Amino acid sequence: MPQTAPDVLPATLGLVGVGTIGSSVIRGLLTPGPGLPEPTPRVVLSPRGAAKAAELAGDFPSHVVIAKSNQEVVDSVECVIVAVLFKQVNEVMKGLVFREGQKVVTLVAGLLPKKLQELSSPASDCVSAIPLPAVARRSGSTLLTPPRPWAQALFGTCGKCVPVESEAEFKRLLCVTTLMGDFYKRQLTAQQWLSSNGVAEEDAAAWVGATFATFAADSREAEAWDV
C-alpha cells in the first residue's frame, strides 16, 4: 500500500470502535467547509458501533465504507485509529494483525504509545490522542503524544492540536479535561437561575451559551493573559 509523506495526513484511515469520540473525529475530517483537507481521506469503519457507523456512511457516502470485520479495517488502511473502551482494548487488539510501517492512533484514555506499540507490533509509528467532542465541528482540541507531523495534520484539521514529547506531561495535561463537567454544570446552573427568575428558557439558554462561548474565545490563546 502506498505511503503518504510523513508530514501529510494519511490518505486512508480506519476506525476500530465507532463511538462518540471516534465518530466526532471522522465527522470533523469529512464535513464540507473551510478547513476540509485536500485530498479528503478515505475512511473505513469497523462494524463495532453499527448505528454511528451507518450514520457516517450515510452522511459521507463518497468517503466512508463499513468493513465486515476489524481485521478488514486494518488490512485496508494506512492509519488505524483505535477507539474502543479501555476494558475492551486487549480483547479487540489481540487478534488483529498489523503491518510494519503502519500508523496507529489510540483515542483510549489510559492506553499510552508504548503499550499500543506492543499490541500492534510490527507497526511502530504509534501515538496517543485525546480529542474533545467539538472536533466534530473543527473547533475542538486534541492532546497528542508523541509529536508526529502526520498525526498533527490529522488532529489539526479538527481544531487545536497540542503535541507533547513526554508521557508524564501528557498525563498531567490530561487532568485538565476533568474541568469539562464543572464548566457545563456552571453553564446549566446559570441558565436555570435565569429561568427561575422570570427569564424565558429559550432566552436564558441563548444568552448563557453565547456568554460562555465568549469567555472561551477570549481565553483561547494563553499568551493573551498576564499571569
Gist?
Helix content is 41%, strand content 17%. It has 227 residues and is of the alpha/beta class. Helix 8 packs antiparallel against helix 9.
Structure description:
The protein has 227 residues and is α/β, with parallel strands linked by helices. The chain folds into 2 domains: 154 residues, NAD(P)-binding Rossmann-like Domain (Rossmann fold, 3-Layer(aba) Sandwich), CATH 3.40.50.720; 40 residues, no CATH class. Helices cover 41% and strands 17% of the residues. Strands 3-2-1-4-5-6-7-8 form an 8-stranded mixed sheet, sandwiched between helices. A hairpin with an 8-residue loop joins strand 6 and strand 7. It is globular and about 60 Å long. The N and C termini lie far apart (50 Å). The model has no long low-confidence stretch (mean pLDDT 91).
Q: How large is the share of residues in beta strands?
A: 15-25%
Helix and strand sequence? EHEHEHEHEHEEHEHHH
CATH level-two architecture of the largest domain: 3-Layer(aba) Sandwich
Report the sheet with the most strands, covering strand number, pairing sense and barrel closure.
8 strands, mixed
Largest sheet, order of strands side by side?
A: 3-2-1-4-5-6-7-8
The dominant shape is globular
Q: What name does the CATH topology of the largest domain carry?
A: Rossmann fold
Q: How many separate helices? A: 9
> Whole-number average pLDDT?
91
CATH superfamily of the largest domain: NAD(P)-binding Rossmann-like Domain
- The CATH class designation of the largest domain is Alpha Beta
Helix content: 40-55%
Low-confidence runs of at least 5 consecutive residues: none
Computed over alpha carbons, the radius of gyration is 19 Å
- How far apart are the first and last residues' alpha carbons, in Å? 50 Å
Overall structural class, as computed from helix and strand content, comes to alpha/beta
The strand count comes to 8
Oligomer: single chain
How many domains would you count in the coordinates?
A: 2
Protein name: Pyrroline-5-carboxylate reductase catalytic N-terminal domain-containing protein
Domain Pyrroline-5-carboxylate reductase catalytic N-terminal: 13-109
Family: Belongs to the pyrroline-5-carboxylate reductase family.
Pfam family, one: F420_oxidored
